[in-house]
Design brief:
Helix content: 10-25%
Strand order of the largest sheet: 3-2-1-4-5
Distance between the termini: 38 Å
Shape: globular
Protein name: DUF2849 domain-containing protein
Pfam families: DUF2849
InterPro entries: DUF2849
Number of helices: 3
Radius of gyration: 14 Å
Strand content: 15-25%
Order of helices and strands: EEEHEEHH
Number of strands: 5
Length: 101
């Protein structure tokens, strides 16, 4: 018996800046996890990943990350993905500086 599909978001890194980005349902890349498209179907998730991987002039390292619905959009499930939403941890400015987490 196969496992139930866990909802996903497509995530990658912006090619120029290196920021973590997420694919939205209207095909934009956003730096806000809550704006990402929450994909609930495995076939659709694979299709969206393939579409993302073709955007080599914009992003690098696209993959599917587990997520769950939240009050303000998708929320990460795993620690690694939650950590990525806070931005780089090697300097004291940007998302890390203003984060309360």
């Amino acid at each position: 018996m196969s496992r139930a599909f866990t909802p996903k978001v497509v995530t990658a890194n912006a090619l120029i800046e290196g920021d973590v980005v997420y694919l939205t349902s209207d095909d934009r890349w956003t730096r806000e996890h809550g704006e990402a498209e929450l994909i609930r179907d495995e076939a659709h998730a694979q299709l969206r990943l393939l579409q993302a991987e073709k955007q080599r002039s914009v992003i690098v390292g696209a993959y599917l990350a587990d997520a769950k619905p939240g009050p303000n959009g998708p929320e990460p499930i795993h620690f690694r993905e939650a950590f990525r939403t806070r931005g780089p941890s090697n300097y004291a400015h940007g998302k890390q500086e203003t984060s309360n987490v």
